[in-house]
Design brief:
Helix content is 43%, strand content 10%. With 318 residues, it is of the alpha/beta class. It has one domain: Rossmann fold, CATH 3.40.50. The strands form two sheets. Strands 1-2-3-7-6 form a five-stranded parallel sheet, sandwiched between helices. The chain has a two-stranded antiparallel ribbon with strand order 4-5. Helix 2 runs parallel beside helix 9 and helix 5 runs parallel beside helix 6.
């Protein structure tokens, strides 16, 4: 089974974070042209989590994501051309142009279909992980979710079931502090999410979500424990989204989040911190590679055809 890198790879993390950032900035740039055919939830500022976590996984490991999933898709190795074609609603997209931004999928790299329903992937991920356990597979499941998912009943039901059946799965809670425009402290009473998870007997920890290296270390340790037979685990990673909950705008002028919080997050942006650990020639080479790959993906999407009318009823189930 292909494994994640044996130690943290600064160049790989930089490449992934730059690809994610460049992709989402391009989405924001062209969004109002109507070329992107669905709502988008961008994770600009949160790239370190996906880059750090997914480089700690093996090729056979399975990722479940959510509607803010571009970063996870790219970091797990999802096809960039296919993703952009899907964003454009083209027939050469991974779902034939019918899924859009919120339902990314690339089963070739074990990236399972995402969903726009909050917390819906959590129960699916638990079921998949149970199936792998029953088959005796060495592959493990990682489920990314936001802290807003922890407001949903299915989240806690799934954690209970995972603990009850001793299912080897890693939950990664990307806590950016807000569920849409609602601050966590204003809607969630009592203990923190890791403390709540621990009441089910789940070992829960925290990692610095602003550092791909820190996330890589935490996820590597967790995956090693899962492969040794540990039951469900959770890692909560703190982070901050720079843009609006949905769409490409800056929502800070709305007043529900202070500008100072954004400035603090931008001051510890992981991309320049990784670049500072590399030779200037390597940074320039990777930046050029990212630009070329993004341009090629956009050209692929532009050149594709829209699906014909016969596609409307294809893959539909009654």
């Amino acid at each position: 089974m292909a494994m994640g890198t044996s130690s943290f790879d600064v160049k790989r993390a930089y490449y992934l974070e730059r690809t994610i950032r460049a992709t989402e900035e391009k989405i924001a740039e062209i969004y109002f042209t109507d070329k992107v055919k669905s709502p988008v939830h961008l994770s600009v500022g949160q790239e370190a989590i996906a880059a750090g976590a997914c480089t700690a996984l093996g090729g056979d490991d399975v990722v479940f994501s959510n509607y803010r999933g571009h970063a996870h898709y790219i970091a797990k190795g999802g096809d960039l051309n296919s993703m952009w074609a899907e964003l454009y609603g083209k027939a050469n997209g991974h779902a034939g142009g019918k899924a859009g931004s919120m339902h990314l999928v690339d089963t070739k790299v074990n990236f399972m279909p995402a969903s726009a329903i909050v917390a819906s992937a959590v129960s699916n991920a638990v079921g998949y992980a149970l199936a792998l356990k029953m088959r005796g597979s060495d592959a493990r499941v990682v489920c990314f979710h936001g802290e807003g998912a922890a407001d949903e009943g299915v989240f806690w039901e799934s954690l209970n079931f995972a603990a009850l059946k001793d299912i080897p799965i890693l939950f990664i809670c990307e806590n950016n502090g807000y569920a849409i425009y609602s601050k966590q402290q204003d809607r969630m009473a009592g203990k923190s999410i890791p403390e709540r998870a621990s009441t089910f007997g789940i070992t829960a920890s925290r990692a610095d979500g602003f550092s791909a290296q820190a996330v890589y270390g935490a996820v590597s340790k967790a995956m090693a424990a899962l492969r040794e037979g540990a039951g469900p685990l959770m890692i909560e990673v703190n982070t901050y989204r720079w843009l609006d909950h949905v769409g490409p705008d800056d929502d800070h002028p709305g007043g529900y989040r202070p500008q100072s919080d954004l400035e603090a997050a931008q001051a510890i942006d992981d991309i320049p911190r990784l670049a500072a650990q590399m030779d200037a020639d390597d940074v320039a080479r990777i930046d050029a590679q990212v630009a070329d790959e993004l341009a090629a993906a956009l050209a692929f999407a532009e050149a594709g055809d829209f699906p014909d009318e016969t596609a409307l009823g294809r893959n539909d189930y009654a």
